[in-house]
Amino acid sequence: MVVQLDQQLLDILACPSEDHAPLVVGTPGDPDADFLTCTSCHRAFPVRDGIPVLLLDEAVELSAAGTPAGTPGPSGTSGPAPAVDPTPRSQPRPGSGTPGEGSSAG
Ligand SMILES: [Zn+2]
């Protein structure tokens, strides 16, 4: 479920931490998550019934992967599949070699 918040509301919302940084919808790992992520301290605040819970006690510190740890995800997240590179392989070369007789008696 995508968080539906007015842009004006997002403008006035700020991180309750001391950085007071603006918030963005979703998390770096899941833009559709019901979270508001601080752009400074990267805390994720849950959005319950369309109401952002901007409490440090409720905040979830995102891991390096950008996903909140310890919280059950609302929906399965599927990342982009890595591209498969065709492995270059050497083509079989035709056998080069001319059988010849180099000995001649003259
Ligand atoms: Zn913050």
UniProtKB/TrEMBL annotation:
Transmembrane segments: none
Coiled-coil intervals, chain numbering: none
Region Disordered, annotated ranges: 65-106
Bias kind Low complexity: ranges: 65-82
Family matches, as Gene3D superfamilies: 2.20.25.10
Domain of life, per lineage: Bacteria
Pfam family membership, one: Trm112p
Xref: InterPro entries: Trm112-like
Biased composition (Gly residues): 97-106
HAMAP family cross-referenced by the UniProt entry: UPF0434
The family this protein is said to belong to: Belongs to the UPF0434 family.
Protein name per UniProt: UPF0434 protein LX83_004823
Species this chain originates from: Goodfellowiella coeruleoviolacea
